[in-house]
Design brief:
Radius of gyration: 22 Å
Structural class: mainly alpha
Mean pLDDT: 91
Low-confidence stretches: none
Largest sheet: 2 strands, antiparallel
CATH topology of the largest domain: Four Helix Bundle (Hemerythrin (Met), subunit A)
CATH architecture of the largest domain: Up-down Bundle
Length: about 290
């Protein structure tokens, strides 16, 4: 190693605005809460890169090669080789999941129907989880490919409900339960729980989720089209959404529908991986015993 070579060096709370990196090897590096706005990447190797919770707005990529790429996220005005692929993907998602057509309501009755759709979808997912729980409760605390465990997902959805319904719409200044889990990147906030390592049982997590889920159903039961077009100011206390922010009621319920549908998709994906591994283990054990 030459005097100009270093490995494992940590840069924390440093300002490197306008820095230039040329002929530099950053392989295996970790970037967390780093801003790359208005940066330029040319002739860079991004193979086997793992990017999570990133904003890629107003990005231009030319001369790129994308092979074996997996993308999960929100797509809007994404042009690939001159074609906006976002509408194509939306259409395909709706073809694969016809219920999505009912998850874009325009009036109060539509939101009540959409919440029923979400309830029906999740009932099957919970049954899959119960089957794994019967095999080994620890499986539902496992992270698949670095994602939240099933139990953590059940803890996050009540957090979304408490934030957007209880605080954003109903103006409860501090609605959270100690087991609720915000997104990982949320900064520590007084009064907001953030215990990522809690390990409640499936029944405990489902009890919390059921309570918050039914709060939405109760509110929707009396929701009017007039209320749906209004906005509410968030209480002036620490939490999420931020104090004083004006929250359109429609946006709050759209957010909850989006959270519920997508997190179920993620949960189904990861439960399938756990089920496949469990079947493989069972087959292997059976062969060894025979």
């Amino acid at each position: 190693m030459t005097e100009n070579e270093t490995t494992g060096r940590a840069f924390r709370d440093e300002q490197l605005l306008g820095a230039t990196f040329e002929h530099v090897d950053l392989s295996g590096s970790r970037f967390e809460r780093v801003e790359f706005e208005q940066s330029t990447f040319r002739s860079v190797g991004l193979d086997h890169v793992d990017i999570r919770n990133a904003s890629l707005s107003d990005v231009r990529m030319r001369g790129v090669e994308l092979r074996h790429v997996e993308i999960w996220g929100e797509l809007d005005d994404v042009v690939v080789n001159g074609v906006d692929v976002a509408p194509l993907i939306e259409a395909e998602l709706t073809r694969l999941h016809p219920e999505r057509a009912r998850l874009h309501p325009t009036d109060a009755a539509g939101y009540r129907d959409a919440w029923t759709v979400i309830d029906e979808l999740w009932s099957g997912t919970v049954e899959r989880a119960r089957a794994l729980d019967a095999v080994d409760p620890a499986l539902l605390h496992e992270s698949v490919d670095g994602e939240w465990s099933f139990i953590q997902t059940l803890r996050h959805l009540p957090m979304a409900t408490s934030s957007w319904l209880s605080r954003g719409v109903q103006r409860d200044p501090s609605p959270w339960h100690p087991l609720e889990l915000p997104w990982d990147e949320m900064p520590a906030t007084d009064g907001v729980p953030h215990d990522r390592d809690a390990r409640p049982t499936l029944d405990e997590a489902l009890e919390l989720r059921h309570d918050r889920f039914e709060r939405v159903r109760t509110h929707l039961a009396s929701l009017t089209d007039q209320e749906l077009t209004g906005s509410n100011e968030v209480p002036d206390t620490p939490g999420w959404p931020p104090p004083g922010e004006l929250i359109p009621v429609r946006d709050a319920f759209d957010t909850l529908l989006n959270e519920e549908w997508w997190h179920r998709q993620f949960a189904e994906r990861d439960l399938a991986a756990l089920e496949a591994r469990t079947r493989h283990t069972h087959v292997s054990t059976s062969l060894e015993e025979s």
